[in-house]
Amino acid sequence: MLSVQRALLGMITPSIRAITIGADKHTFTIRAIFDRTPTEADDELLKDITSEVCADFPEFTDFKEEAVFCRTSFNELQEQFFLEAWVFVRREV
Fold it and tell me: For the whole model, what pTM was predicted?
């Protein structure tokens, strides 16, 4: 998890609500939840983050990035999109 948080330094944009990660034996997944429709630039941002992480974990043979749009409450967001751990959650009032 520290590897992912280090990769996120300087990469969080105002439209990112939360980022969750998960992994199985061979696949690492990072999912960013946006407060608007994700753009190609958002997809590239996730690829850059994943590139940083994959250097630390050569045991993973597959990396997946998912950029999703969600404006529901955080509780609903958590039920719908949570993987295994939150690495970033924006404060929402």
Answer: 0.93
